[in-house]
């Protein structure tokens, strides 16, 4: 029987009545990557499977050949030579899926781990069997834990969990499992609604133009992609039930089923202005999770900005009204 490494972690006693709305199982995940850009790849992955109350059921770890330079070796410690004989992502996708299926994905900064997994699956023309995710940073904030910052090492210190190898996927996942269990029990005891977010699998993906294999880590870490300025004036807000008009300012929030940059490209091609934030000038916000507590959705509500989902936006993109002629 697999030893439960969370058993020694400090935690509250199980509540007498566990919330019926809580998930039935969790997959605590950590991935190490070649960088943070949309075309970066996973070099290692670990999953700790937990039951409904956070008890460890199993754990799994693998290296992954990213088919390119490994990026920040000084962070994850994985060299090109070490990864050369490792399986490629398509070779481990099925086993990884078995570990994730029917569970809530738990990660520290879960949006990142989810986006990397979603992109890797999309490259194989499949989808990750994940429908919800839970970020332990968000959970710590909801619990009001007295943390000076929200680094994993700080959360580990709060619960007295010892980290042996930072930035090693298996050890990071272990530490996260050990810290998640007491947080989960504290949330259950207080009746806290878990900050679960929907995961939208990618249905279309493109890595874009090929880039030299030996590019520097600096280039992959902070990619820049400048778009030409929208040539049309902003005609104002989108009227629900109407059509989009060239020049409208469109902002996006949360996961999309079509890769975000592809979606933005289509918006630009249609003559729309893609905005990186929401302001009083924003014409419409596109999100599949309008109830998520993001700054963009909060601002959209405060400004009265119309909110639509991705499917509606894709439909509207098929018939965008041309910008009215300007008087010269």
From TrEMBL:
Entry's Gene Ontology molecular function annotations: 3'-5' exonuclease activity; DNA binding; DNA-directed DNA polymerase activity
Hydrolase in keyword set: yes
Domain BRCT: residue ranges: 240-328
GO biological process: DNA replication
Protein name, as recorded: DNA polymerase III subunit epsilon
Keywords: Exonuclease, Hydrolase, Nuclease
Gene3D superfamilies for the chain: BRCT domain, Ribonuclease H-like superfamily/Ribonuclease H
Residue span of region Disordered: 214-238
InterPro entries per the UniProt record, alphabetical: BRCT_dom, BRCT_dom_sf, DnaQ, Ribonucl_H, RNaseH-like_sf, RNaseH_sf
GO cellular component: cytosol
